[in-house]
Automatic annotation (TrEMBL):
The keyword Transmembrane helix applies. This is Uncharacterized protein. The keyword Transmembrane helix applies. The chain crosses the membrane at residues 20-40. Keywords: Membrane, Transmembrane, Transmembrane helix. InterPro entries: GWxTD_dom. It comes from marine metagenome.
Length: 128
């Protein structure tokens, strides 16, 4: 049967095939739309509630105190050792380290947002 004939096929088998094709196309369109909106939101810097991707529940003081726990799964041994060498009272040194840490993972340097940090902090917020 030709393609046009398949579209006009009124038999139960033809109807079932059209429903399956429609369901497949609808699913693909829905998936593309969902992924597109996620990508657009990430590019606009949305996500964690504040610009920069840090969730509102995690204020800067908390981020500074909990940084080692937040990044435990993603930092290197060398970064962990460097963090451990910084004095607890050296707030400026810790902030400088945190800035360099996230900048080294920024997939689009030179832009306002750091998508990697935003996604990571969203995941951290989700677990809390």
């Amino acid at each position: 049967m030709t393609r046009c004939g398949a579209l006009l096929d009124l038999s139960p088998e033809g109807s079932k095939m059209r429903r399956n094709q429609f369901a497949s196309v609808a699913f693909i369109l829905l998936l593309v739309f969902a992924l597109g909106t996620e990508l657009a939101d990430a590019q606009r810097g949305r996500g964690g509630g504040r610009r920069g991707g840090a969730p509102a529940a995690l204020e800067e003081a908390t981020l500074l105190e909990e940084f080692d726990k937040i990044v435990d799964l993603i930092w290197t041994d060398q970064e962990e050792d460097t963090w451990g060498d910084i004095d607890d009272d050296a707030t400026e040194d810790k902030q400088a380290f945190i800035t360099m840490f996230w900048e080294s993972r920024d997939p689009t340097p030179g832009t306002e947002s750091n998508e990697f940090r935003e996604v990571w902090m969203q995941r951290v917020a989700y677990t809390q």
